[in-house]
Amino acid sequence: CIAEDTAAMNPIRVAVVGTGQSVGNHLRALRNLGSRVQVVAAVDLDEARVKAVCAEYGVPRWYTSTTQMLAGEQPELVCIVTPPATHKPLIIECLEGGAWVFCEKPLCRSLEEFDAITEAEQRTGRYVSTVFQWRFGSAARHLKRLIEDQALGRPLVGVCETLWYRNEAYYRVPWRGKWATEVGGPTATLGIHLMDLFLWLLGDWREVHAMIATLERPIQVEDVSMALVRFESGALGSIVNSVLSPRQESRLRLDFQRATVEVNALYRYDNENWRFSLPEGVADPEALAAWQLLTDNTPSHHDVQLVEILDRMESGKRPPVSGPEARRILEFIASLYKSALCGRPV
Known about the structure:
The chain is built from 13 helices and 13 strands. It is of the alpha/beta class and 346 residues long. The longest helix is centred in the C-terminal third of the chain and has 19 residues, at 324-342.
């Protein structure tokens, strides 16, 4: 109770940089945290847009300069919701300005940029966490524990499919569809969520064979990618990322020795989106009992990850999905692109 009262009296000051299409996910999540946070400002180069967002969500002050906002507001946490190519300089400026950072994916454009962010973390003593809310729903976390406890046996086969649809109008936004500004196509910007969950659940990977293509959209980057993955455990997996799929779904299926576990959703899930299956004709009360221990139903929303970041801020410890845990998905995507562009396994 004392800790809760202290948090209410001294809420963490939060600012948001970038008020485009995804900002509502962040502002609604921050609102759900109640008195634990105080949203003090928002920033966008588009003055009319930032004013409108501040009015809609009750944010007290707006800026068109991150530098001026950091000096004027001194936030303790900054949510960065801007195009990918802008992430690295904004992250480093916010770290140096005294704030921790919660940044949209992809965190940056290259492993070289990631190393520069790591150096800034070490220099400032503050941390950056990447937005990967799919890790934080109750069903995924429960499955992670079952895998660690080997309750379902060894993982054998995995299928990871982000089958979305983005029309030509979506790519008329000036920064989209270009390697220099968007970093990549659905591999780097859309399928990254489910791929991160896939790699988090199944562990380190050893080898990837990939293809990418631009089949339909008038863009520089790929509109579809496919990959085969060999994991250190010996498990094999397949990955598809697409913006050409009229019937949209996000689907992850994991086949273990004793059971299949799968989730079928689109942008978020709760327990109802998950399914647990035993082999036909096989009674396995132990495996069934392990899955049925899932009682909490926490959706995969931004606020769940934000709560953990706030907890780590208060204890001064590295938050989840940062450091090496944030780097591994970038290493995988870089390797997937390298395999596709060079025509060989990586």
